[in-house]
Amino acid sequence: MTITITGASGFVGQHLSKHLADRGHEIRGLSLRSADWETDLGDGVDVFGDAVVHLAGKAHDTAGTAEPEAYFRVNRDLTQALFQRFLASDARDFIYFSSVKTVADAVDGTLDENHPAMPKTPYGQSKWEAEQYLSAQALPEGKRLFILRPCMIHGPGNKGNLNLLYQIVSKGIPWPLAAFENRRSFLSIDNLCFVVASLLEGQVRGDVDDAAKGVPASGAGLCGGVFNLADDESLSTNELIRLIGEVRGRSVQLWRVPVGLVRFGARVVGVLRLPLNTERLGKLTENYVVSNAKIKTALGVEKLPVSAREGLRKTLKSF
To answer: How far apart are CA 226 and CA 106, in angstroms?
Structure first.
């Protein structure tokens, strides 16, 4: 199978390209950075090969310095243009990587695919508008559209909040946010690659709506759909800090600084543009549990290949 991947040079793109290549697929990287990307793509119906995996996009800016319009230009407009080229091609599958943040910035309970979309940020809004556009297009017979909404992705080479927590524990700095009781979902890059390969290779059973209702598989395969992606288990940030300590082979100190005091401090350092601003504090302490039941039902599996703790250990050992 020949698979075109946008954003192939990024963290997810590098892992996914290798995983699919190791399974015998031909990978074509497509950069959308150039204004002439459509010209560079060339003409003809075979420009994409068999499938398009659209990873490229403008990631959420925790510093809050990005212009809102930049998100819509990249996440919405480029997706629309790419999808139109897909519709005119011979490629069968289009896999669009959205985000759980398209639906909700905060979650009470567990987030599933039936949750109404209420994005609050330009990032989430631009992704949601891209989703709406894709879902509204009529698909020619034989084509499939998958919209995947991953939660926080991690793996070897990953940067961001996990690396920040790792550095805190490694330096022996007490964890001052232990008073926050939370649970959140993560997504191992290995589980992400497993899902994408399974979708592309047709390792699915029945129609997703029928499967979700327990209807026996028809054998016709999955036609497409919207799916959350997350590991099977959720963890608290305190559990994650302890796990980092296990990986580093050192004890950790959990300080229960009053929640109100921490939030006030985060607002102050946010004004001063220091590392722990209000948004980053939210990411470290929020409740954000994501259900992966729908994708597992579609794939016909009880568990994803890598447990949450196993995947996190692999990521942490790579730092």
So the answer is: 19
